[in-house]
Specification:
Order of helices and strands: HEEHEEEEH
Number of domains: 1
Strand order of the largest sheet: 2-1-6-5-4-3
CATH topology: Nuclear Transport Factor 2, Chain: A
Number of helices: 3
Strand content: over 45%
Domain SnoaL-like: 9-100
Protein name: SnoaL-like domain-containing protein
InterPro entries: NTF2-like_dom_sf, SnoaL-like
CATH class: Alpha Beta
Organism: Actinomycetospora chlora
Largest sheet: 6 strands, mixed
Oligomer: single chain
Length: 115
């Protein structure tokens, strides 16, 4: 079984490969995502949403990873085709039995919205 840090490393590795389907291995069936652009529940809907997001992702540049038991905080720069500069982002995940149960992304969405 993966540690929480290994789970989230595999999660972001899937992003880098543009492989949303591989994320099923690290997301709990009842995973809940919350972020500035929306709320998504369940593994199928999360994978579908990630298919859309990964269409604009160029790179994920990890800056720091903090682990506190089952909780993982990943600070990264999200490089996208929709923005000229990377989006500084914080991802807070709670991992149970090697799978992310909750994920919360925190970033300023204005560059994606054109405002």
């Amino acid at each position: 079984m993966r540690t929480p840090a290994e789970t989230m490393t595999a999660y972001f590795d899937g992003w880098r490969r543009h492989d949303a389907e591989s994320l099923r291995e690290v997301l709990a069936d009842d995973v809940v995502f919350d972020g500035p652009m929306g709320h998504v529940e369940g593994v199928d809907d999360n994978v579908a949403a990630l298919h859309g997001l990964l269409g604009i992702v160029r790179d994920v540049e990890i800056r720091h990873v903090f682990v506190d038991g089952p909780d993982v905080c990943t600070v990264y720069d999200l490089h996208t085709s929709a923005t000229d500069t990377p989006l500084p982002t914080v991802n807070l995940a709670h991992v149970v039995d090697g799978r992310a149960r909750t994920i919360r992304a925190i970033f300023d969405p204005r560059p994606l919205l054109g405002t």
